[in-house]
Hints:
- By secondary structure, this protein is of the alpha/beta class.
- The protein has one domain (3-225): Rossmann fold (3-Layer(aba) Sandwich).
- The chain has helices spanning 3-17, 26-32, 41-47, 69-77, 90-103, 115-121, 151-160, 174-187, 207-214, and strands at residues 38-39, 59-63, 82-87, 108-112, 127-133, 161-171, 190-192, 220-225.
- α2 crosses α5, α4 (69-77) packs parallel to α5 and α7 (151-160) crosses α8.
Amino acid sequence: MKISNHNSQFIQELRQENTGDTFQNPYILAARDLEGILYTLSELHASFPHIFNLTSRPIILDIGCYLGGTVIELARENPGINVLGIDLKFKRVVKSCRKIQRAGLLNSKIVIGDAADVLTLLPENAISGVLIFFPDPWTKRKQRKNRLLDSVFLELLWTKLEAGGFLWLKSDNREYYSTVSAAALSTGFSMSASFPGEIVPGPYRTIFEKLFISQGKPIYQAFFYKGDKV
Length: 230
């Protein structure tokens, strides 16, 4: 079992048994108690899309949502969509959920787990869009097998996106960006600079993007659509 999915299963077991008070990591206990905002893989599978109050809204995924900044911005600026953030770590998902609670946003949720496993659980054609901002480029050649975005992942994503659905990719690594762009086009995506109609146009800058900009690094980004974008 992948470490990330072990974390998800761990929280599932703690919730079922109502145990965990002896753990020293406070984020484990917090994750256990965030039912209704933080979902395990099993809970997502059982309840999707009814984790959201209004299931008819477009659903946008933020893969690698880190501390939830983009999830919050998306949900706040676009009250007509549902946002599902995905991350691996207890601390990250707990901090994301706490931000959702403080903001009082009902159109945003978080799931703890591996992105490919989350996608596998979702029905086909169920997602309107996916954001993947600054995925780890694993720059050393022997590490590239660890990259999230490859042809297998993109083919899986294609099946989960509705017709006209989009992938919004950002990267500070030109080689990775070029490699993913070529793979996306080979999968059947069309590449465009046009903003998707589901969300209000804006930069939606993560803390990483702000850091890279401050360092003078170029940012590579594009939208990839399932179908043609005029």
